[in-house]
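Here is this case:
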Amino acid sequence: MLVSVIIPAYNEESTIESCLKSLLNQTIEKDTYELIVVDDGSTDSTPEIIKRYPVKLFRQENSGPATARNLGAKNSSGEIILFTDADCIADPNWIEEMISPFIDEEVIAVKGAYKRGKGNLIMRFVQIEFEERYEILSKLNSIDMIDTYSAAFRRNIFMEYGGFDTNFTKANNEDTELSYRLSKTEYRMVFNPKAKVYHTGHPNTIFKYFKLKLRIGFWRVIVYKRFPDKILTDTYTPKTLKFQVLISLLLLGTSVLSFLHSLFFYAFLSFLFLFLISSIPFIRFSLRKDTSIALLAPFFLMIRATAIGLGSVYGFVSNPFTSIGTRNTKNRGQ
């Protein structure tokens, strides 16, 4: 079974070499997989670095990672196509673990895990965020979210459903949109926690983290407009997070209105109490991983929920393109 590994790259001169070295040092035979890099109009030395390695290089004008990944898939030869990011470093057995679930013919997509080493508090909090989600996913027979940092698809299904929606010109939620489309099929998508990549691009300040979650909130609501059944429940998002997003918006509203009447102040205190209660599951989970993060969890969770909430409100009242999914993408099952 030939495998194609596709990496979109835009101005990744500081990370692409480590990424390619890790992918060229895999446990499976080199003649069983190909590496495809799509340069998305880089203006730095990324293309020159890529040319030093035995990979297929395609270039396009800067159009975003969704378009770049689709171009790589179109020019791939593998029955299975894998995606990762140019700032990720794959474990030596990453490809082997990513393709192993495809022995089950009902499986059409596989999600791997995301790790990083020690860092500052915000970076450690982000890692625990992921690990909380992974614990949820590892208990499920089928999932509805395949993240592109560690993703695998049967090529025929990926092409049949039109790949990533290129209306998503930024690296944000294009994988969610495709995952939700594929979740409507009669096939399964699964999580393999043994397939690990190490990401070097965690946000390392509160400000960067807030901006990231703000964008995630915005684009996720754009996707929810197309898949409203996912608003209340999906396999990837902890239920407490969606509750906290709502509470954070109520906290913002009542904090402003409390200047007008004392009843709003009492409402603010009630919502704050509910938020703290809803933080208990994450605090308990964090205690098993990192005591410092557990102690600061309510603060980090409030930052996260507020950013996602504000982004969601903006996404709800706006639309970054006229009609989501206007290009030829299939929506079987809707």
Notes: The CA atoms of residues 247 and 271 lie 6 Å apart. The chain has a mean pLDDT of 92.
